[in-house]
Design goal:
The chain is an alpha/beta fold. It is about 30% helix and about 20% strand. The structure holds 5'-O-[(S)-ethoxy(hydroxy)phosphoryl]adenosine.
């Protein structure tokens, strides 16, 4: 059995169902089931109606122009994402409402009202403009989770520049690759960031990354101060606060962008080659992000919304910045680790700020389970009314723990399936309507035509599994891969004509609910982070000792999947613990700590088919200690036996 098979057999035995309470249902934003049917009959009409919740400078001419695989939504319409997220709220009763409640890991905190946030965004926009940033230019952002991060995104949006955020956990090499691919002239970083009380040397990484790249200016936010010990290169590096004092206090006029102008790039791992720069445009992305706040997250004006993701990933883009702020919400943003200084940090924040909606990842929930219920019990969590999860399939045990120990049986759980490519949550419950089943993301949201199909693209019957696809274009779909439209076509639309293939396997149950089984390509999901096996393999073979490497994801209790690397070394190289440590560090330096293999197994040979393909399924079976399936296609079956012995020894 593979990972996916074992998940499936567990899920098929899952029969528990959870309906929202009467009081939740009565107060929910969406109470009428007919929304599904009306959106199904007229998806363009549905999305056009949703788009009216945004502020447009000029109306659009067409709702959708679709020439597979290229979609244009609301083209001709003019709007600005930062205006929608900040300025329009400054003009009404939300002017002095908290937009961002930020807490730093050491315990410092800042609150920005919409009005204050607006002034900061305008000053940052002036600053970027003074540095020569213009509409359409790319700006790379490599920051810790501090307020300057959302402010930078919004300042770019205000100018009409394209932001490309690189998660602070990425190495200098990974950062460099993304700067070069995006051809970014400005990099915004910080002296350092805090994580578990230690410093993350962002500026030092940035220094290595920008050499011989198009980046001419590095703006440095002073987060830590003298302790960070950074050196500033004259003519290239400038401090954020020194530039800001020079900017005029005058409002920055929002650029009137076309709905189809690019809002941002966000790099994500694929099966092969370099990370893909996923392209999102302005009007469609913002429409679905904004809609999902009302429908999936049931957002009301007095909610306090806490999404625990980092803005370095799409979840933070959509559910810390563009979704909640466009909806005028109050968001809680936290800089650091959930166990610093204690394992009750999140629960302390929920109590302190009166969080009403909490959105986190299954890997975090499993970690909290392991730590024990005594930590949430230390705090009053009665303000919570809705819980969400994202990033990987949630196992029913973790769902139940979340339901009981965090939600106290009161709060509906929205298990939201989506991807960097989909822009926002698109398979998810509507919490006032949907009967939840632990482990299922339930049904596509209104206006989304997702399905599970067989290898011919035919819809599978209930009770069967196959490929997760989206049949019709939706407003927040990626438009292309930056600089590689051919790869966009091939990757997402190459398998079935006109249908988006998500890369996930899924099962459809008798009620039409979707159960995501995980990636079916060579992408590993470690703690909700997508890592391409190829990227880790290339990092390993770039080490002088390595001849060949094969990387697989094996199931892991907390992380969902963990990386196991099988490595053959060059002639005369001595294997042992020292080399293992060196190789793990080498991967960390090449990509980042999240790609560091959990274990490395040296082997004289890798199992290959007669046509010289590495048999990954077999490697997974070995790593997970399962009985081996058919090995008759293997060129040299003795390799497997040797590997099995080797793996046992390394345990
Ligand atoms: C997985 C994160 C099951 C899936 C927003 C997808 C999920 C990949 C869920 C995208 C979920 C995300 N249930 N699997 N609720 N949410 N995934 O691009 O494999 O970082 O393809 O976007 O995460 O990861 P990405």
């Amino acid at each position: 059995m593979t990972n996916r098979d074992s998940r499936l057999s567990n899920l098929l035995h899952e029969t528990r169902q959870f309906s929202p309470s009467e009081s939740f249902r009565e107060n929910a934003n969406v109470r009428d089931e007919s929304i599904y049917e009306s959106a199904r009959q007229d998806p363009e009409g549905y999305w056009s109606e949703q788009a009216q919740n945004l502020s447009w400078f000029a109306p659009y001419e067409n709702v959708l122009k679709w020439q597979s695989p290229h979609a244009e939504w609301f083209s001709g319409g003019k709007l600005n994402a930062a205006y929608n997220c900040v300025d329009r709220h400054r003009q009404g009763p939300r002017k002095n409402k908290a937009a961002i409640i930020w807490e730093g890991e050491p315990g410092d905190s800042r609150v920005y009202t919409y009005d204050m946030l607006g002034r900061e965004v305008d000053r940052a926009a002036h600053m970027l403009q003074d540095l020569g940033v213009r509409r359409g230019d790319r700006v790379t952002i490599y920051l810790p989770m501090i307020p300057e991060l959302p402010i930078s995104l919004l300042a770019c949006a205000k100018i009409g520049a394209i932001h490309s955020v690189v998660f602070g956990g990425f190495s200098s090499k990974a950062l460099r690759q993304r700067i070069v691919d995006a051809d970014a002239k400005v990099l915004i970083t910080a002296d350092a960031g805090w994580r578990r009380g230690a410093l993350i040397a962002l500026k030092a990484n940035a220094d290595e990354a920008v050499v011989d790249t198009p980046t001419e200016t590095v703006v440095v936010v002073r987060r830590v101060g003298a302790q960070a010990g950074v050196s500033m290169q004259a003519g290239r590096d400038v401090y954020w606060h020194e530039l800001l004092v020079k900017t005029p206090g005058a409002p920055f006029p929002a650029a009137e962008m076309d709905a189809e102008d690019i809002l941002f790039l966000l790099y994500t791992s694929g099966t092969t080659g370099n990370p893909k720069g996923i392209v999102h445009t302005t009007g469609g992305y913002l429409t679905v992000a904004n809609t999902s706040m009302r429908t999936v997250f049931d957002m009301k004006d007095d909610d306090i919304f806490f999404c625990t993701a980092d803005i370095g990933w799409v979840t933070g883009h959509t559910y810390i910045v563009y979704g909640p702020l466009s909806a005028g919400a109050t968001v809680v943003m936290y800089e650091g680790s959930p166990d610093f200084p204690g394992r009750d940090r999140f629960w302390d924040m929920v109590e302190k700020y009166g969080v009403t909606i909490l959105y986190t990842a299954p890997t975090s929930i499993r970690t909290f389970m392991k730590w024990g219920a005594q930590y949430p019990q230390m705090h009053d969590l009665r303000t919570l009314r809705l819980l969400g999860t994202v990033g990987e399939p949630i196992n029913p045990e973790a769902w139940m723990w979340y339901h009981e120990h965090i939600g106290h049986g009161r709060c509906p759980i929205v298990d939201t399936w989506w991807q960097t490519e989909t822009g926002a949550a698109i398979i998810a419950p509507l919490p006032g309507l949907t009967v939840a089943k632990p482990g299922s993301a339930t049904r596509p949201v209104p206006g989304i035509d997702a399905d599970v199909v067989d290898e011919h693209g035919q819809s599978v019957a209930p009770g069967h599994g196959g490929y997760l696809v989206i049949r019709k274009p939706w407003p927040s779909m990626l438009r292309t891969i930056w600089g590689d439209d051919e790869r966009f076509r091939r990757t997402y639309f190459g398998q079935f004509e006109g249908m988006y293939v998500a890369g996930d396997g899924a099962h459809k149950d008798a009620d039409g609910y979707v159960w995501i089984l995980g990636r079916i390509d060579d992408v590993i999901n470690v703690s909700g982070h997508r890592i391409g096996t190829m990227e880790v393999e290339s990092a390993l073979v770039s080490h002088r000792a390595v001849a060949e490497a094969a990387v697989i994801g094996r199931s892991h209790d907390i992380k969902g999947q963990a990386i196991t690397a099988f490595v053959t070394v060059k002639e005369g190289i001595e294997t042992g613990d020292a080399l293992i440590a060196e190789l793990k560090q080498h991967v960390t330096d090449s990509i980042g700590a999240m790609a560091r293999p959990e274990e490395i197994i040296f082997t004289a040979e890798l199992p290959k088919t007669r046509s010289a393909k590495i048999m990954r399924r077999l490697l997974r079976d070995i790593a997970e200690g399962r009985v081996l399936g058919d090995t008759t296609t293997l060129a040299d079956p003795s390799v497997v036996e040797a590997l099995k012995t080797q793996y046992k020894e390394s345990e």
